[in-house]
Design a protein that fits this description.
Layout (H helix, E strand, L loop, with lengths): L4 H4 L12 H13 L5 E6 L5 H11 L15 H8 L5 E5 L6 H11 L9 E6 L6 H12 L5 E7 L7 H4 L3 E5 L4 H15 L5 H10 L4 H11 L8 H8 L4 H12 L3 H13 L4 H20 L14 H10 L2 H17 L6 H13 L7 H17 L69 H16 L7 H6 L8 E3 L2 H7 L3 H16 L3 H4 L24 E3 L1
Parallel strand pairs: 1-4, 1-5, 2-3, 3-4
Antiparallel strand pairs: 6-7
């Protein structure tokens, strides 16, 4: 059965591990000197050799005849551990066994001595996936394990591992493998497997692996499936990449603000089966390299991802400024982050490319900075002024073109001027007199003593209210006073008094004095005792007026 290249060519000794000599040398010295720790913590990115070194170490501590710290891979212990027949060396996946129950079961089994080898070894891969209770259950046995027990923990996310776990382990950080070392290893594996791999293809695969040898072997396995020669073009066609030439051409078109040609290039790449996400990723890598050359020119090739010749990088660097590169890189990174959730990847890629070609369409802070930098460059280089047509008679002086006059706007009909309306004469403000109603005639009453005095009192009341003695009592009716008793005054007297300048006060006083002195027999005038509120009484109300309008002074 066919076996993947990264599994078939997994290193079996510390000497076969590529690019991690600072770790493998230390582990070999510990094995050879017998100074082994009870717990190790391997950290680093994917494909750098963490699990591989853990398996080599598990065989080396149990090997019956180690060679300079390396396992011999020939004794029964090494062979049994390698083929999985010895159960004292157990490899666990913390991603699927992250509960506290699994850790408790592991802790209960760890106290027993190994059956076939010297040490019981537990390799816990992706240890950061353990839950908090699982970490707590692992603390005690990890701090004081039995002498026959060893833990080897591996993780790609060290920040998720609790500090209490890290302090109980020896920590080794695996670094990314350099592209040159990866390319050399690929050429060796290709030679052993009979794969026709060119140096250019190996360099491209090493650059795409991003420091992981396992990824590089997987890519080589994918590109060599057809049996053809694995060169640079074959790698690009197999992986759906645009290539350095197309990426550089696309970047040049964006630098020259040629939006139409850039969109045509992207459409051609899309029709050829290229992934728009991969195209934007290559543009992002190129923009990053150009920005590094602009901001850190002394860094050299150590800061660059490689893959582009010096002539191409120099030519693109002359067309783009650092603010423009920063704007392009930010736009590419934002679009790449949104592509996995996009409903139309091609549309998002085209919108990103349009904003790369024309920074005026980018409303972000980086886009504004790029536009300002462009204006500053134009001003520094001396932008020629636009020439306008001028007449020969004025010495060739440029004349400003006549601005088109705006069309007159018709005024709405309601804004037309109209003759003023005639002024109305001012009317004098007069008190509205109440409607005159005929006075009710009281029923005939028998003559009483002092009737003459009552007549004189009524005449005095009329004169006091009208201001003229002896005036007709109709004016008294208009002013709302009772023509009989002289003490029932209409509520409007206060307002009339204010209008006449306080005259009402004197009239009330006159009425009061006249009523007290000249009307001793008011009951007789009003109908006698007990008849003040009768139907014939003047105080019972008048026709057309409510009964509560009248008051007693």
């Amino acid at each position: 059965m066919y076996q993947a290249l990264y599994r078939k060519w997994r290193p079996r000794t510390f000497d076969d591990v590529v690019g991690q000599s600072h770790i493998t040398d230390t582990l070999k010295q510990q094995v050879a000197g017998g100074r082994l720790s009870h717990a190790y913590l391997f950290t680093g990115t994917r494909g750098t050799g963490k699990t591989t070194c853990a398996k080599i170490l598990s065989r080396a501590v149990n090997c019956q005849s180690p060679v300079n710290g390396n396992p011999c891979n020939q004794c029964p212990a090494c062979l049994g551990i390698e083929n999985g027949s010895i159960l004292d060396v157990l490899e666990l996946d913390a991603a699927s066994n992250n509960g506290v129950d699994q850790v408790r079961a592991l802790r209960d089994e760890a106290v027993y001595t190994p059956a076939a080898v010297r040490k019981r070894v537990y390799i816990v891969d992706e240890v950061h996936m353990l839950s908090t209770p699982a970490f707590n259950a692992l603390l005690k046995i990890l701090e004081e394990p039995p002498s026959h027990l060893m833990f080897i923990l591996a993780t790609t996310e060290l920040h998720k591992v609790p500090a209490t776990i890290r302090s109980r382990c020896q920590q080794f950080a695996f670094k990314r493998i350099l592209p040159g070392q990866i390319a050399q290893r690929l050429e060796y594996v290709a030679g052993q497997e009979g794969i026709d791999l060119t140096p250019e293809g190996a360099a491209l695969l090493a650059r795409l692996a991003d420091g992981g040898l396992r990824d590089a072997l997987s890519l080589l396995d994918q590109c060599s499936g057809g049996g053809q020669q694995v060169d640079e073009q074959a790698v690009l066609d197999t992986l759906g990449l645009a290539g350095n030439l197309e990426t550089a051409r696309l970047m040049e078109l964006a630098a020259r603000h040629d939006t139409a040609a850039a969109l045509e290039t992207l459409s051609r790449l899309y029709a050829g089966g290229k992934d728009v996400g991969a195209v934007l990723g290559e543009l992002s890598s190129l923009a990053r390299d150009l920005l590094m050359r602009k901001t850190a020119p002394r860094g050299g090739s150590a800061l660059l991802t490689g893959g582009y010749d010096e002539t191409t990088m120099r030519g693109l660097g002359e067309l783009l400024t650092a603010p423009r590169l920063l704007q392009m890189l930010n736009r590419l990174q934002d679009t790449a982050a949104l592509l996995p959730r996009s409903s139309s990847r091609r549309t998002d890629a085209e919108l990103c490319l349009i904003r790369l070609c024309d920074e005026t369409l980018d409303d972000s802070a980086a886009g504004l900075s790029a536009r300002i930098a462009r204006l500053e460059e134009q001003l520094a280089s001396g932008v020629p002024a636009r020439q306008t047509a001028g007449s020969a008679g004025d010495g060739g002086a440029a004349q400003q073109p006549a601005r088109p006059q705006p069309a007159p706007v018709e005024a709405p009909p309601w804004t037309e001027e109209r003759p003023p309306l005639p002024e109305e004469p001012e009317e004098e403000r007069t008190l509205e007199e109440p409607e005159r109603r005929p006075a009710a005639v009281p029923p005939a009453q028998p003559a009483v003593a002092g009737g003459e005095s009552g007549g004189q009192a009524k005449a005095a009341l009329r004169g006091a209210l009208s201001g003229e003695p002896g005036k007709d009592g109709g004016d008294l009716e208009k002013r709302g006073a009772d023509p009989v008793g002289g003490q029932c005054i209409h509520q409007g007297d206060a307002q009339q008094a204010q209008h006449h300048g306080g005259a009402g006060t004197g009239r009330r006083a006159a009425v009061r004095r006249a009523g007290q002195s000249s009307l001793p027999n008011r009951e007789a005038l009003s109908g006698g005792p007990g008849h003040g509120a009768g139907p014939g009484s003047w105080t019972a109300g008048r026709p057309g007026r409510p009964a509560g309008v009248w008051g007693t002074v």
